[in-house]
Amino acid sequence: MTPRASWPRQRLGRVARTVGGSGFPPEYQGSSEGDLPFAKVSDIRRKGNEFGITTAANYISRTQARLLGARIVPAGSVVFPKVGAALLGNARALTLRDCLIDNNMMGVVPRAGDPRYWLYLLSVIDLAELSPSGPLPYVSESQIRDIRVSLPPLEEQRRIAKFLDMQCAKIDRILKVRRQQLNLLGERETSRVFAAISGMNEQGERKFSGLGWLGVVPREWAILSVSSQFEVLLGKMLNQERTRGDHLRPYLRNINVQWDQINTDDLLEMDFPPHERSRYEVQAGDLLICEGGQPGRSAIWDGRIEEIYYQKALHRARSRGRSSVRWLFYCLRAATALDVFAVEGNTTTIGHLTGEQLRAHRFPFPDRNVQDRLVGELDAAAVAARHAQVAIKKQFELLTERRQALITAAVTGKIDVATAGEVDV
Questions:
Q1: Cα(87)–Cα(128) distance, rounded to whole angstroms?
Q2: Is 60 exceeded by the pLDDT of residue 346?
Q3: How far apart are CA 400 and CA 396, in angstroms?
């Protein structure tokens, strides 16, 4: 190995050039054939691009590229997001063929060296640290060209790239298994919830529920509308005037409500005069249901804040006494997993679950003691599954950190790849 101290450290702009992305007008988009793939940020993770950019959702001809004034990114370049939230993810991809990139991306074209070494070298640079402070993160071509990089001799670059290819592949295989385990836990939860709300394991005769997605249920179970069991009301409409006033109070938004949890770290305030409070106040035990985003996503408010309200993007379901909000939560969980609301919507309502739709929607509602028993079983299984998910996610984080640390050590010469051999992961 060439000693690390002898690796020349220089401006990236001396050993590579940058290529900015091009505007991609809608009228040029939509073609799956052409001379050049026109890559967007989403194409970095596109199926078929696991080892580098070879395909994209959109293609154009070289003639169209000239008309657009688009700069071709040659094979062997490293491309990445240069603006917005995607920049913070620090995704990198090697181009395996000539392509174009849109104006949310940038490319680095090495003048010399091993392309895969360059991919690893650039992957250890945190672009968020280069971004100016402000609401929209971004980096410029001049900032990238000013980065100082260390380049060992070509043969050393190839050894490092080969070593990292082997070691990262091993880690990636383990990460893939962990992803599959997480997916399996999610699938098992969906199966458990569906079995419970359909009474699959209950004894006795069965009947058709009248709901195609649900199938048969125990004969004695009632199929009732949500409105017959719960008061369902939409939250307060937000406008600029209501962000000011003498009665500002915190309120919950769609983004605060995730599956079975409510995040209160970033609450906003709106004016709720005294005469509106009973209408829009959220009480402990109320079920909050998302109207849009992921229609049906819901969680029960636990009362951690004494006085809180909710916005129009949410429905509030409050039990009329017979049925459990926790049972309704699981009914919504199953229906959402099966895309029931999207399938049953029309072209004007897909993407939103209106109050009228939610109130009219029918679910199985057995006697309360049956609801409580099945909810108790589902909750216990959910706790065990959550513990397993936490453990797997922790392993995932540690493996991801290990992968990045290994790349950093190799491209900075902190480990001798010629003698490192197999690395324990």
A1: 7
A2: no
A3: 6
The gap from C-alpha 254 to its chain's centroid, in whole angstroms, comes to 16
| Contact (CB, 8 A) for 366 and 372 | no
Q: Which of 408, 420, 396 is nearest to 176 (CA)?
A: 396
Of the listed ranges 30-34, 192-196, 223-227, 348-352, the one predicted with least confidence: 348-352
Q: Are residues 34 and 117 located together in one domain of the fold?
A: yes
The distance of Cα 214 from the centroid of its chain, to the nearest Å, equals 28
Tokens of 219: 């004969």
Contact by Cβ (8 Å): 204, 220 = yes
d(CA 127, CA 353): 39
Q: State the Cα–Cα distance between residues 23 and 14, nearest whole angstrom.
A: 27
> What is the per-residue DSSP string for 95-125?
BSS-BEEBTTEEEEEESSS-HHHHHHHHHTS
* Residue 44 shares a structural domain with residue 144: yes
Sign for the CA dihedral angle at 383, 384, 387, 392 comes to negative
Confidence of residue 7 (pLDDT cuts 50, 70, 90): confident
**Backbone φ and ψ of 18, nearest 5°:** -105, 150
Q: Nearest to residue 404, comparing CAs of 151, 123, 204, 75? A: 123
Last residue of a domain, one of 343, 365, 387: 365
Q: Does 401 fall in a domain? A: no
Q: Which residues pair with 288 in a beta bridge?
A: 299, 316
Within 127-244, residue ranges assigned H as helices are 141-145, 154-197, 226-229
In this structure, of 9-23, 170-184, 350-364, the range with the lowest mean pLDDT score is: 350-364
Considering its fold, how many domains does the chain have in total?
2
Domain with 339, as residue range(s), is 222-365
Does pTM top 0.70 for this prediction?
yes
Q: Does the residue 384 lie in any domain?
A: no
**Nearest partner of 352 among 360, 340, 342, judged by Cα:** 342
